[in-house]
Fold:
Amino acid sequence: RSGTDISDTLVPAGARVSTKIVKAKIGPGGKAVLYETGKPGRIVGLRIGPASALAGSGRDILLRAYWDGAAEPAIDCPAGDLFGYSFGEPAVRSLMLGTTVAGVDYIYFPMPFERSARIELVSERPAGGADVDVEAEIVTAAAGKRADEGRFYARWRREDPCTPGRPFTYLKTEGRGH
Structure:
């Protein structure tokens, strides 16, 4: 089923499913909120197209997601990287994430939250750069995070150029997880 919508398999029994479609134009240095709620729930599918809008070696269109009012984003990375791009181009079509033949990026990892969620696309393109036109589809289920569930995190860091003679830190964190 790679490349097909599997969000129905991530919905807890009896939970109401909703789909929100957002069209956005993001100028250089701008951002667009794709989804925001002040109620418990879970993201079960996120699709953004066209894939060409997120492609490129600049990695300058970021996807950020905040769970439960956190000041720091739980997801903070170039959108293309989150969807499995390689060298700035779509490269993956798997069950959980990738790009469809029609050129739509998707991710189906469950992303539960207890009180609130916000997902946004951010352009780090310099002034005079091209606008980004996207259409996003966010599939949610009205079933909040259970006590025995974790949260979805995806972080990305860049150091360019790397500091000679100093190791690059890939991850520095505290708390439970795996």
In short: The chain has a mean pLDDT of 93. The chain is about 0% helix and 35% strand.
